[in-house]
Specification:
Blueprint lengths: L2 H28 L6 H31 L4 H31 L2 H24 L7
Length: 135
């Protein structure tokens, strides 16, 4: 191999590396992150809020069941509804977190759709249940 062949091989290799570098920088410039840090932060704090809310709600049901005259046909369905809301909330938060992290808009849309019944259930438990304690 003569010197001229080495120089042409090195320049070809250098041109290849330069083109590869340009391609990589063009690839990274076109990518715009869709995942939302504020949404993920709100989901994290919603998990904490939900945990505290359900613990307090179950203790309030225990208190209302022992201290107040509670109609026998309403305490059971309200406890079942609270348990269903807990399960639904865990699923909703998981779907929202996965949708945000994977940047999948269809999953985030499902998260928003699942938020509507959750909101209705929270309104029921805040204002419309049998005994609303003003603590």
């Amino acid at each position: 191999m003569c010197i001229r062949d080495r120089v042409s091989t090195q320049s070809t290799w250098g041109q290849f590396k330069q083109k590869e570098f340009k391609y990589q920088t063009m690839k990274t410039q076109n990518i715009k992150p869709v995942a939302s840090l504020p949404l993920q932060t709100l989901l994290y704090f919603d998990e904490i809020y939900s945990f505290v809310y359900f613990i307090l709600a179950y203790f309030c049901f225990l208190y209302k069941g022992y201290a107040l005259f509670y109609p026998s046909n309403s305490i059971g369905p309200e406890l079942v509804a609270l348990t269903c809301l807990l399960i639904f909330q865990v699923i909703r938060l998981y779907i929202g977190s996965v949708g945000n992290k994977t940047e999948a808009s269809s999953i985030v849309i499902w998260f928003i759709i699942l938020s509507i019944p959750t909101l209705i259930a929270y309104i029921f438990f805040i204002a419309l249940q049998t005994y609303v304690l003003m603590l």
